[in-house]
Structure formats: C-alpha cells, structure tokens
Amino acid sequence: MTEVLIAGAGPTGLVAAIELARRGVAVRVIDKSPQPFHGSRGKGLQPRTLEVFDDLGVVEEVLALGGPYLPIRVYAGRVPVWRARIGKITAPTAQTPYPNLLMIPQNHTERVLRDRLTGLGVEVEFGVALTDFTQDAEGVTARLGDETTRVRYLVGADGAHSVVRKRLGIPFEGQTREAERMIVADVRLSGVDRDVWRAYVKPLRRRFMLAMAPLPGTELFQLIAPLRPGETPELTREAIQRRLADAGARSARVAEVAWSSVWRANIRMARRYRDGRALIAGDAAHVHSPAGGQGLNTGVQDAYNLGWKLAAVLAGADEELLETYEAERLPVAAVVLGLSTRLHDTAATSVTKAFKRGADTDQLGIHYRYSPLSVGERAGDRAADGVVTSVDGERLRLFDLYRGPHWTLLAAAEPPAELDPGVRVHRVRASPTGDAFTLVRPDGYIGLTCRDARQVSEYLRRITVPTRPAIRESAAGRSTE
Ligand SMILES: Cc1cc2nc3c(=O)[nH]c(=O)nc-3n(C[C@H](O)[C@H](O)[C@H](O)COP(=O)(O)OP(=O)(O)OC[C@H]3O[C@@H](n4cnc5c(N)ncnc54)[C@H](O)[C@@H]3O)c2cc1C
C-alpha cells in the first residue's frame, strides 16, 4: 500500500520522494503534465542546495552538467557600458565545499533527481492529476481522475496553483502585480558568443530591455524580457527576433524557441503548511520573484526538511514532529519573499544594482535556532563540512559522516549505551561544536549539543527516531569509531 502520495514531480516533489524512498517508505509520485517539464526556469542552484544534493548523492552529476554564473556585460543599445557578476566566485573551504552559485537548467536538475528516484525503485507517473481528496483520522482518500486511492499522507508539491492548498482552504496571502510581467524563454541563437551573459538597457533612460544567459550543457540561451503594462506577449521566433533587434542585439539570430512562458509578479505565501495528513511544500506554499534565484532552492529545502520527519512519523514517531516542519520552514519562506521582492524592485529601478548579491542569497545562513527541535548552544545551525579526528587518530570528513538518511552523533565522551539504529555514533577527540556531544539531524542541522550522555538519550526519545529496520542506505547501522 502507498504510504505517501506526492502530487507534483517538480524539484520539490522529487526531493520529497527521494527522501521518503531512501528510508523505505512506499511512495507514489504523480504529475498532471503528460511529460517532464522542459524549460530552464529555475536555473540557479545555491550553495546550500548543492550540499543537500551531496547528501542525496546527486551533486557530482549536477556539477558536471552545470557551470558557473558567467560575467555580465550590460549594453545601452549597442554600446557596452558596464560589467558585472552575480555573486563572487570563491574557492571552496573545508567548511563550505560548494561556495558558488551553479547555473543548470531546471529541466536538467529534474532529470538528475528523477534518475536518482528511479534508482530507488520509484518512477514518476506522468499524466496523472490529483483532482480532489478527503481525509480522516487514518488517512487520505485521493481522487486521481477516475481512480481513487487511499494513502496515509498527501504531500502537495503541485506548484503555485496547488490543488492541495486550495482544497484545504489555506489562504495564499500576498499580492499579484498584474502590470509586472516578463517573457522567459529558451532560445537557440546564432551570432552571439557564449562567453558572457548579456543584458540590454534602453540608452539614456537605462530601462531594462532584455537579458540572455548562455545555458550550460545546451546550445540555448535563457532570454528574459520585461513586458510593458498591457502589452500582449508574442512568443514566436519572429517576435523574439524583433525584440532582440529593438534592444540592440542586432547580430543575434533566433534559430529556435525551445520553450517560452510569461511570468507575472505573484508574491504570496501560504498561511499554514499542514492540515492533518496533508502538507504543502515548494511553490505550493510560497511564490515570489525569480530575482535572487531562491524559488527552486527553497522548495528543495522544504522537501528536505519534511522528508525525514514524515518518514519518522510513519515509522512510529509522534505526529507532533510534523508540526516542526511549518515552524521551521514558514519563517524561511517569509525571509525569502522579502529578499526576492527587494531584489525584484531594485531591478526595476537600477539594473546595475540588481546584480549585486550578498551572502543572504546563498542560503547557507538559514538556521532553525528558534525551533523546538534545537536544544543547546549552536543547535539549529547548519552542520558545516570540516574534519574531525576520531579517537583512533583517523581524520574524518564531516560530510562523509552525515551523508545518508541517518542521524549522526559526534561523541567526545562516552555515548549512551543504547541508541536507535537510525543514529550513527562516531567517537571523536573533539566534537565540531566543542561540546561533548553534537547530534546532527538527518537534514544537516545541529539538533542538540550537550555535555551529558543522558541528554542525548532524552532528546532522541522525545523525537523518537524511527526504529524501522529498513533504513535502506545505512547498511552499516550504528558504527562506533
Ligand atoms: C522565470 C523564472 C526564473 C526562475 N529562476 C529561478 C532561479 O534562478 N532559482 C530558483 O531557485 N528558482 C527560480 N525560479 C522558481 C522555480 O522555477 C520554482 O520555484 C520551482 O519550479 C518550484 O518547484 P516546485 O517543485 O515547488 O513546483 P513546480 O516546479 O511548479 O512543479 C509542480 C509540479 O506539479 C504538477 N502539478 C500541478 N498540479 C497538479 C495536480 N493537480 N496533480 C498532479 N500534479 C500537478 C505540475 O505539472 C508540476 O510539474 C524561477 C521561476 C521562474 C518562473
């Protein structure tokens, strides 16, 4: 029997499915679209998402398919007037192995995630839509067109127009700015080098006209062009060709429009993320401007936060654990909405300022310090990479210890004798936080730091780590070093 039905096989639904499937949960993923999404849309993967992908076992592939954010050359008409770069390119450090924003078309990211899911024995069912559902104390009855199915939980990763959110009557609060729209299209161009990202502004008034970013791993460029209020968008090859000429890109020839869409400024977030056995994540829970490249990344991290908790509850943990999903993720969405709206509004007045990025967009600073799951000094912080020394003198890379669906206890003192097999224990000379015990959650955040081994047992009892034997990838179970 399916335990969890995931509606929507975008990045959010796929990550949720991987997290559940690798913990042995029977999961079904449906998508109303007859085939996979084929556009570049969310093309920026933030450093924190790359760390999540490292844990999911897909980072190498994603890095191989993607590329760095190229320098930007801004033209006023045909005259180059300014150079810029989105973010700084920095060298990896021991704590941050993936410090840079990666550009990779969204359809390529989704393909990598789908392949990973296939490896776990789950295939996305395309052309199957969730049309309605009801829930009771034991489960959810979902209507998938003519089919009715019964599951224990439903995850709505069904995008901005989420059926799950609407059916639950969860308000989607915020604003829609009808006048602010832009064309986003993947185009094959000739007569344009692929060494820089070109942006065009209107001479004198400096109004943003168009940008074209070469997409790594393809022959395409992602073209972004704002529409004037009331303008009817034309998405044909000829119309895009005219737009390029108007902006000043005279040498560019449009050979093909591979994908196109019209984006409208919709800045909203859901008031709640859960109602009983139905939960929402990703664009179903929050939508905002693509400025700052936050949307896909926030959805991936919603799913990463939810996946292990849902698996734990299905394995016997208290349902209350699911409450911490909203408690931890809703405030993050609020911050992301503020940040992306600020960058979006800046872009309307100054193209040059719009490309400036601080550390706030890389998502490495996201923390859950305010969460009921965070106990002790530095609890709730991201568990950074680094090196610890085992009691035997072996140097251990932290991300190697964290990778997989388990909890990790770094113990610089005698650990509790009895621990759940879902916790891997490593005896170390000093734990990364300096405390005797550092307990790292499955999603790479510090849950607990403490001096007393009894506190570790108590904390884990409170959360009730899953006791299900089939934590598929932690074959070694509990290891003590
Ligand atoms: C122009 C543009 C540029 C962007 N740039 C960036 C960027 O640089 N970085 C970034 O992080 N984000 C970016 N984003 C945002 C990013 O694309 C989205 O945030 C991301 O796709 C959200 O993923 P999701 O899985 O939550 O939803 P979606 O990708 O929307 O997936 C939802 C899926 O659910 C399916 N579905 C819908 N209804 C049903 C139903 N009833 N039953 C079954 N299936 C259903 C849909 O077919 C779809 O496949 C950009 C967005 C746009 C428009």
From TrEMBL:
Cofactor: FAD
Record InterPro entries: FAD-bd, FAD/NAD-bd_sf, RIFMO-like
Any Pfam family the entry gives: FAD_binding_3
Phylogenetic lineage: Bacteria, Bacillati, Actinomycetota, Actinomycetes, Glycomycetales
A GO molecular-function descriptor: oxidoreductase activity, acting on paired donors, with incorporation or reduction of molecular oxygen, NAD(P)H as one donor, and incorporation of one atom of oxygen
Residue span(s) of domain FAD-binding: 2-336
Keyword flag Oxidoreductase: yes
Domain of life of the source: Bacteria
Organism: Stackebrandtia nassauensis (strain DSM 44728 / CIP 108903 / NRRL B-16338 / NBRC 102104 / LLR-40K-21)
Keywords: FAD, Flavoprotein, Monooxygenase, Oxidoreductase
Protein name, entry field: Monooxygenase FAD-binding protein
